[in-house]
């Protein structure tokens, strides 16, 4: 019997075209991942697209996205019988329940497994495709295609399949099967949030039903080499536990459904019919003929009736309520985690709460729109009421419009509820921050977007006239518009129809200059939606005709209804008008640039001007700037005038000048030299001008370059990035000069070839016909030694500036304020720096409130003025920032040497870009970085303190010591600033905080290296690799001061700084610093310098066993078995073991004083000392005075160790009293 | 008001020819449309009810062109389809009120009266507050009738309205129909001959998409009057009888087949002349139609 049903199911599945269609989709998906650039799962060009790690990722992602296919296959075997009314026939045959269910389930399971095997087939075909470059492919490993097929795809299909199958058995409703899919998807999303968090990995892995989190933790810190060669192990680690757990959960759910299921009609339909009316009411009189009024206004009245009924219909449906509730729970869950984040939390300002709410409920809104668009369009037909309904006397546009309005109403209600959730979160955390007006504006924006999506979803359902095809098409649409648009080359807002317009709201600047594009683009979408609605209304199915020809014929008939054609014309004109306005602004007023155009332009500039790379050029020695800002004028704009003084510091005369200027089309550039010169070439695309001087500039001579740059905002530009946050390098002037909160850099003038403008990424270079290039000049390259790291065209310069702005704004630039006045209704500021400085210029202007303090060096000298310029709303952390500066100034002055200025200023700027950067005596700080950190809970990490001191550190490391433009520059500047901040934190934070903080550094370094795009370098040769110069640098210096002593290391740094202060031509490099550190390091620890700075060295330390026995004297014998291994990694992470003769910290601890992970120690150290280990395995014995709870090797994880969580163990009591042994 | 159907043809996408050159003139009053399952009755009715497009032909109702002026048709239409469902979670009273509103009865008081009247007429008054999901087939059918009769329809199209009704309900409904049928066009499709015989002054028989007979029942019967004979026979002899004679129908009476036969010439030999009925015409026409194809 079972075999019969099983075979029938198989035959059914394998004769269905859909089975092969799904199979084909997966083949294609996998094939594309191997053959198309942006579709691969390798993440780094150094990782092969067919590496085991990338393939595993492919199988996980495909099977997660494929969940809807699993639902379609495994949710339907029983539904099929119900739907077709077969149950009566089938269930009355003598089948048994086990045979029936098992046959159907296993047959469908085999089918879905077959479908998923398409991933392997497609991937294999992709690897064999002749046009894929050999360099992108590694060897074909059959196990890498089969392992994840079974371990990832098949297990996921089994789990999800059990859930869907059981969901139908339990509820006998296809909608519930859908909901099951959504719940799974939410679970998956939740687990993804978990994986972003860095602690409690094990628990988080288990919560991901699809195993991706487990795989990512297992392969978390894999190097490039490992990702290329190592097979993901499905039989160990987190994965095996995860897979077994969820396969088990799936089977349990299936068992539950199985137990509940009875062979019979679905309960809902088997409701007992009402017995015929008991009493016959006597008929009173004849039939009533009620007058019908078909006058004006009936349509509107009927519309209202229909909308009301359908709105209530959706809102009362329990699947809708479940979805809405899930959405709320999801938002609250995210809020909870946001405010538990060990990496720091922010104040619940309204825009952040709105972002939290919108980001997390959008998914649910999309699902609700998709599903309920289908339910509404099919409402009459699903209940077989359509013949009655369609013959009623209402206009044909009525049903579609009523459904649209009902769906919009539902979404409006949902959005309101979600906003209510947002308000509740704010009230709970900081009630004063609720901004009702901002909620209203955000509601409007959300609602417009949702309206457009509702119109699209209903149009799709109507036109394709098949509910499930409609759902699928909507998913394709979402995928294209929200995820793949940029990959597919659809960059323009006009092409991403219905996608939300990206924007950034700033507390300082409000919606600011983004109001215009928001209005125009949303207007375009709305007009398009209107047109779509009208066109769809023509195709609305009324009656029994569903053939395309008849529908078109009917559409023609409806088109002749009065009013239809004018409405179509009007909406088309509106759409054209709004679209045209967008196009006019983005493409005609401004230059429309795609990433590919920009790349091509960069490549072209390199081809044209690279030949001038070694051309001797004069250096900037003085900048005299007049900057006039018009932040609230119409149009907004600025004018920057002034002079650069350029001196020939070379030994030969210079006759050719290569000048770079800002190539933005909205900026007019006027350049004048103070001596006769011929313009050889002017290239406005690249922003390059080449001069031939009539009279060469003799060695030691100077000339002045006069400039006059005028920027006027012209309309609005297109947004290339979908996030609304822009890359600072390509950020357009319109985002820099804003109504409140301008942040301009220097005038954009540079002298001499700029290697920094070259394409860096090897893949991008190859695409554009360029050869790979070295990222940075090598450590001792003489040309690089003569250039400053971040301003190759200038050494220390004199700087003065006059800045003018609106009368209610304050404008600031590096230097000291000499004079302030008002003239012609504008406010002027005159700044001058009284000593040479790096040519790093910023000009900021905003309506600031200022917090002033001062710091007095106890060793004497003038006081240092501390000034924090901030938005009046953001005074939460201003005092803390000032305190950080005071503490930093004290520590740095004492440890490294004097602060060079009499003033330090922090300036807030809008969050169009989120960073902080240290200019001379001036630190611009994004409003999102520090100003709104929530420091009220003292147990949370204090990043404000840390970042403030990191930036302050740059006044020493970056402004007093300026690195040469060679390898290792990042270490001299960033690692030392990071170290400085870490040291202030060390004296400020609790040890637990500090450990939490250092864990973040380690984690970021280890994650960063798996994404390396070229070569990982040792610290002292770092090449613009943030994961090395910030995080490894921080780790290394912190460990070094722990090994050789804080004073020793600081002494070396101080000596180095003393020697290198303001040193230029040649600028110092890391080798210079290393000689000082080497001197300060005892011979026994010299090996550390090689490990930490000159090589990539990692430890594999593990505490194998930890046991203790009580001694008669009340003390305890402790025995620890330690495995220790040291490895060197090459640039791709291939490791070789090196001999061990290293001092490792070993500790025994009392019970944790506060809550801690198993692998962290928070207890009192009973023993803590560095012990030299030489063997792979060592057993150590200690005697301690108190009962030990935990023990560990390198227990605070100061060394770089990928498997840090096996360093610490709970100590176990051993029953047998061992013989007392010697104490070490 | 007169409904004129001219040369209506319809072929479905799957090749089934539902209507072939159908022409009918339907005056005020009850009009019976008689035909077996699949004859094209429902197709014809749906086309008149604006729910389906013909391939060719025309329909006019008074001065209304049914095929293009659909909105005007719907304003005077009451339609009961052969099969329909109802929202399971709503009560009859509420749904009927909702439909009444959509039918243009905007006055709330009038709507209430209309709903009450119809619920009583269709004998659903006692169950008016029950959810429609719990209604039996007969109750659902009566509810559909109530919807069709809402307002003041001039054209009432009821497709197999008596299917599923018990005899009492059937009679009640037919009374109701004939009451309003005096002043409006009522088209009643059925495959039950008595429905037509009892009620309809005009009728048509439709088979395989074609009108095979039309007129008043008496006219239609007239063409075979005096040509119908009946006889009793044995089951075993049936086949032989069919081969020799044009058998209209055979029924079992007390377990023995009673056969009615059509013959242009007088028959003896155990045959007795019989009073021709509409049913005889119906079966005769169908049989002829089948033979001709």
Automatic annotation (TrEMBL), chain A:
The chain crosses the membrane at residues 20-36, 56-79, 105-129, 149-170, 175-194, 244-263, 318-339, 361-378, 404-428, 443-464, 476-494, 514-541, 562-584. Keywords: Aminopeptidase, Hydrolase, Membrane, Protease, Transmembrane, Transmembrane helix. InterPro entries: Peptidase_M1_dom (IPR014782), Peptidase_M4/M1_CTD_sf (IPR027268). Pfam families: Peptidase_M1 (PF01433). Residues 885-1086 form the Peptidase M1 membrane alanine aminopeptidase domain. It comes from the Bacteria. One of its GO terms (molecular function) is aminopeptidase activity. This is M1 family aminopeptidase.
Automatic annotation (TrEMBL), chain B:
It comes from the Bacteria. GO terms for molecular function: ATP binding. SMART domains: AAA. It holds the Pfam family ABC_tran. Residues 3-233 form the ABC transporter domain. InterPro entries: AAA+_ATPase (IPR003593), ABC_transporter-like_ATP-bd (IPR003439), ABC_transporter-like_CS (IPR017871), P-loop_NTPase (IPR027417). Keywords: ATP-binding, Nucleotide-binding, Transport. The keyword ATP-binding applies. Belongs to the ABC transporter superfamily. PANTHER family: ABC TRANSPORTER, ATP-BINDING PROTEIN (PTHR43335). This is ABC transporter ATP-binding protein. The lineage of its organism: Bacteria, Pseudomonadati, Bacteroidota, Cytophagia, Cytophagales.
């Amino acid at each position: 019997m079972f075999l019969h049903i099983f075979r029938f199911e198989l035959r059914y599945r394998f004769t269905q075209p859909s089975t092969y269609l799904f199979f084909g989709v997966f083949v294609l998906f996998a094939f594309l991942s191997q053959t198309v650039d942006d579709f691969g799962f390798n993440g780094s060009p150094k990782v092969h697209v067919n590496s085991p790690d990338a393939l595993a990722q492919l199988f996980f992602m495909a099977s997660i996205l494929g969940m809807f296919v699993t639902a379609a296959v495994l949710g339907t075997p029983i539904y099929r019988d119900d739907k077709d009314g077969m149950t009566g026939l089938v269930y009355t045959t003598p089948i048994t329940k086990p045979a029936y269910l098992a046959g159907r389930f296993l047959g469908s399971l085999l089918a879905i497994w077959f479908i998923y095997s398409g991933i392997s087939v497609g991937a294999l075909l992709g690897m064999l495709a002749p046009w894929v470059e050999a360099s992108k492919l590694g060897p074909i490993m059959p196990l890498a295609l089969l392992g994840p097929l079974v371990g990832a795809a098949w297990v996921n299909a089994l789990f999800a399949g059990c859930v869907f199958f059981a969901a139908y058995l339990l509820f006998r409703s296809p909608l519930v099967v859908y909901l099951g899919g959504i719940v799974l998807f939410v679970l998956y999303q939740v687990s993804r949030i978990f994986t972003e968090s860095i602690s409690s990995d094990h628990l988080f892995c288990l919560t991901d039903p699809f195993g991706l989190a487990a795989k990512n933790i297992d392969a978390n810190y894999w190097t490039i080499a490992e990702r290329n060669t190592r097979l993901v192990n499905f039989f160990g680690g987190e994965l095996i536990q995860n897979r077994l757990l969820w396969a088990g959960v799936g089977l349990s759910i299936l068992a539950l459904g199985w137990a509940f299921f009875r062979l019979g009609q679905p309960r809902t339909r088997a409701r007992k019919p009402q017995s015929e009316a008991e009493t016959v009411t006597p008929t009173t009189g004849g039939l009533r003929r009620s007058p019908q009024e078909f006058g004006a206004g009936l349509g509107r009245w009927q519309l209202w009736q229909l909308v009301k009924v359908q709105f209530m219909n959706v809102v009362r449906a329990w699947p809708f309520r479940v979805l809405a509730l899930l959405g709320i729970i999801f938002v609250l869950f995210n809020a909870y985690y946001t405010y538990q984040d060990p990496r720091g939390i922010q104040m619940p300002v309204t825009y952040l709460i709105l972002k939290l709410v919108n980001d997390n409920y959008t998914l649910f809104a999309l699902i609700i729109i998709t599903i309920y668009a289908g339910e509404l369009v099919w409402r009459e037909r699903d209940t077989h009421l359509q013949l009655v309904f369609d013959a009623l006397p209402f206009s044909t546009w009525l049903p579609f419009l009523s459904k649209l309005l009902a769906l919009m109403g539902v979404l409006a209600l949902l959005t309101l509820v979600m906003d209510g959730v947002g308000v509740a979160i704010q009230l709970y955390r900081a009630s004063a921050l609720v901004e009702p007006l901002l909620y209203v504006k955000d509601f409007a924006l959300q609602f417009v977007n949702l309206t457009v999506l509702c119109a699209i979803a209903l149009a799709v359902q109507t036109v394709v006239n098949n509910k499930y095809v409609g759902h699928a098409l909507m998913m394709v649409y979402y995928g294209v518009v929200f995820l793949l648009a940029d990959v597919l080359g659809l960059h323009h807002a006009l092409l991403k129809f219905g996608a939300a317009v990206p924007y950034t709201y700033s507390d300082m600047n409000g919606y600011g200059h983004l109001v215009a594009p928001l209005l125009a683009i949303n207007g375009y979408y709305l007009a398009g939606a209107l047109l779509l609605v009208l066109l769809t209304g023509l195709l609305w199915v009324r009656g029994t005709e569903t053939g395309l020809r008849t529908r078109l014929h009917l559409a023609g008939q409806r088109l002749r209804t009065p009013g239809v054609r004018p409405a179509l014309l009007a909406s088309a004109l509106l759409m054209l008008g709004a679209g045209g306005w967008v196009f006019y602004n983005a493409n005609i007023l401004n230059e429309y640039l795609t990433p590919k155009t920009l790349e091509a332009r960069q490549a072209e500039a390199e081809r044209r001007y690279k030949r001038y790379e070694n051309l001797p050029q004069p250096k900037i020695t003085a900048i005299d700037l007049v900057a006039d800002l018009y932040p609230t004028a119409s149009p907004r704009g600025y004018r920057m005038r002034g002079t650069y003084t350029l001196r020939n510091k070379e030994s030969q005369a210079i006759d050719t000048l290569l000048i770079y200027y800002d190539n933005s089309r909205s900026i007019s550039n006027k350049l004048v030299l103070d001596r006769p010169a011929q313009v050889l070439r002017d290239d406005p695309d690249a922003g390059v001008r080449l001069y031939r001087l009539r009279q060469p500039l003799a060695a030691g001579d100077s000339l002045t370059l006069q400039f006059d740059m005028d920027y006027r905002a012209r309309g609005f530009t297109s947004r290339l990035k979908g996030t609304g946050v822009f890359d600072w390098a390509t950020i357009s002037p319109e985002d820099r000069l804003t109504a409140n909160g301008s942040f301009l850099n220097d005038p954009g003038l540079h002298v001499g070839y700029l290697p920094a403008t070259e394409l860096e990424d090897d893949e991008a270079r190859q695409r554009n016909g360029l050869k790979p290039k070295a990222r940075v000049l090598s450590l001792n390259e003489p040309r690089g030694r003569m250039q400053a790291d971040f301003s190759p065209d200038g050494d220390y310069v004199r700087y003065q500036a006059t800045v003018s702005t609106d009368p209610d704004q304050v404008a600031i630039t590096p230097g000291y304020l000499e004079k302030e006045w008002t003239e012609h209704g504008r406010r002027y500021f005159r700044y001058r720096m009284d000593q040479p400085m790096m040519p790093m210029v910023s000009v900021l202007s905003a309506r600031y409130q200022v917090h002033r303090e001062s710091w007095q060096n106890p060793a004497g000298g003038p006081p240092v003025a501390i000034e924090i310029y901030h938005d009046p709303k953001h005074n939460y952390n201003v005092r803390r920032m000032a305190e950080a500066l005071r503490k930093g100034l004290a520590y740095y002055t004492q440890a490294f040497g004097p602060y060079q200025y009499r003033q330090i200023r922090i300036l807030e700027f809008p969050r169009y870009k989120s960073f902080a950067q240290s200019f001379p005596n001036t630190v611009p700080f994004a409003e999102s970085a520090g100003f709104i950190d929530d420091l009220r809970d003292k147990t949370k990490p204090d990043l404000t303190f840390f970042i403030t001191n990191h930036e302050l550190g740059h006044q020493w490391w970056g402004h007093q010591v300026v690195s040469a433009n060679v390898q290792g520059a990042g270490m001299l500047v960033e690692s030392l600033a990071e170290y400085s901040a870490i040291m202030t934190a060390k004296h400020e934070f609790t040890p637990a905080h500090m450990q939490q903080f250092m864990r973040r550094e380690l984690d970021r370094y280890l994650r960063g290296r798996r994404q390396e795009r070229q070569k990982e370098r040792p610290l002292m040769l770092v090449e613009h690799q943030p994961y090395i110069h910030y995080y490894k640098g921080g780790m290394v210096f912190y460990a070094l001061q722990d090994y050789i002593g804080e004073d020793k290391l600081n002494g070396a740094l101080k000596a180095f700084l003393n020697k290198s202060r303001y040193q230029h031509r040649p600028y110092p490099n890391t080798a210079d610093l290393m000689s000082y550190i080497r001197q300060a390091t005892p011979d026994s620890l010299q090996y550390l310098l090689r490990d930490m700075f000159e090589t990539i060295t990692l430890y594999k330390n593990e505490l194998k066993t930890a046991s203790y026995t009580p001694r008669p004297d009340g003390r305890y014998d402790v025995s620890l078995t330690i495995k220790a291994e040291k490895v060197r990694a090459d640039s791709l992470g291939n490791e070789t073991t090196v001999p061990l003769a290293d001092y490792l910290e070993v500790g025994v601890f009392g019970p944790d004083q506060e809550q801690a992970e198993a692998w962290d120690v928070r207890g009192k150290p009973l023993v803590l000392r560095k012990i030299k280990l030489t063997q792979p395995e060592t057993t150590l014995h200690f005697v301690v005075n108190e009962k030990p709870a935990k023990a560990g090797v390198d227990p605070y994880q100061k060394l770089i160790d990928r498997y840090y969580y096996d360093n610490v163990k709970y100590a176990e009591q051993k029953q047998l009293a061992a013989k007392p042994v010697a104490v070490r | 008001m007169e409904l004129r159907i001219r040369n209506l043809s319809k072929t479905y996408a799957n090749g089934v020819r539902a209507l072939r050159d159908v022409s009918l003139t339907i005056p005020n009053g009850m009009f019976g449309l008689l035909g077996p399952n699949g004859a094209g009755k429902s197709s014809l009715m749906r086309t008149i009810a604006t729910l389906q497009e013909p391939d060719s032909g025309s329909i006019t109702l008074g001065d209304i062109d049914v095929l293009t002026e659909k909105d005007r048709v719907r304003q005077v239409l009451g339609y009961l389809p052969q099969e329909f469902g109802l929202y399971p979670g709503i009560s009859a009273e509420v749904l009927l009120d909702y439909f009444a509103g959509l039918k243009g009865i905007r006055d709330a008081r009038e709507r209430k009266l209309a709903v009450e009247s119809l619920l009583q007429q269709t004998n659903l008054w006692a169950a008016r507050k029950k959810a429609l999901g719990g209604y039996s087939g007969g109750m659902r059918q009566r509810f559909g009738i109530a919807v069709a009769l809402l307002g003041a329809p001039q054209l009432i199209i009821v497709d197999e309205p008596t299917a599923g009704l018990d005899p009492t309900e059937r009679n009640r409904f037919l009374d109701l129909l004939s009451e309003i049928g005096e002043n409006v066009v009522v088209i009643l499709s059925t495959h039950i001959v008595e429905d037509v015989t009892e009620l309809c002054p005009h009728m048509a028989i439709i088979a395989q998409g074609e009108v095979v007979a039309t007129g008043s029942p008496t006219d239609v019967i007239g063409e075979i009057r005096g040509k119908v004979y009946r006889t009793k026979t044995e089951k075993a002899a049936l086949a032989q009888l069919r081969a020799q004679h044009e058998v209209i129908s055979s029924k079992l009476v007390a377990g023995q087949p009673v056969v009615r036969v059509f013959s242009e010439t007088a028959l003896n030999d155990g045959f007795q002349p019989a009073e021709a009925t509409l049913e005889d015409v119906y079966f005769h026409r169908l049989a002829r139609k089948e033979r001709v194809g």
